[in-house]
Amino acid sequence: MSASDPLIDTTPPARLAAAAALLALAALAGCSTQQQAPLAEIREVKVPLRVPVIEPTDAAAREFLAYSDRLRQLSGAELQQEVTRLGDGSASPLAAMQLALALGQTRASGDIARAQALLDSIQRTPAPEYEPWQALARFLSMRYADQRRLEDQVERQAQQMRDNQRDNQRRVDQLNEKLEALKAIERSIGSRTPPASAPGEKPAK
Predict the structure, then answer these.
(1) Residue 174: is it exposed, middle or buried by C-beta count within 10 angstroms (0-12/13-18/19+)?
(2) Is residue 83 part of a domain?
(3) Which of 60, 117, 141, 182 could form a disulfide with 132 if both were Cys (CB 3.0 to 4.6 A apart)?
(4) Residue 91 lies in a domain
(5) Domain count of the fold of the chain
(6) Average pLDDT over the chain, rounded to whole?
(7) Segments forming the whole domain that contains residue 121
(8) Pairwise CA distance, residues 43 & 107, whole Å
(9) Residues 51, 43: contact at Cβ < 8 Å?
(10) What confidence tens digit (pLDDT) does each residue in 86-129 have?
(11) At what angle do helices 93-106 and 56-72 cross, to 10 degrees?
(12) Cβ-Cβ contacts under 8 Å for 137 (sequence gap 6 or more)
């Protein structure tokens, strides 16, 4: 077929397009023959999850503080009901500590001494479940001891004031008695004094 054959376009743009198509086919063929790159390896890495562990002493301290806050919000009647609910506190170290805290809030005579007896029992018990509470029991027992000393001091001062008031009242009563006795003597002296004589009249013999 000659160059003048009308079926083949030999103009420069047509030749350039054909060359570009051939180059594209060659590039595609070369890419297909290249070895495929390996995929990235995926590895499973296990990261340990750290769960916070609360020590028994920390748990006891949290219970101690939470219950103390709760007691401060109770009325007098509610506080007595709480003391009744806890019984003698022998059910558990938690119950004993709660009862000791409640008794320290009642301000009733003898309740501080009862609370200290419970705290001493917690400190002396060798069972493992009592160990987390023993440091708190020592702390509360010392606080109650200071409170008792202060209350005893205030009571002694109040008793001394009452005694002084009684002594002062007794002195006042004694002075009033002496004053009344002096008035009685004056009245008796005045009743025995003879009437004054008229002018020129001789006193009676």
Answers:
(1) exposed
(2) yes
(3) 60
(4) yes
(5) 1
(6) 80
(7) 56-148
(8) 68
(9) no
(10) 999 999 999 999 999 999 999 888 899 999 999 999 999 999 99
(11) 30
(12) 97, 100, 119, 120, 122, 123
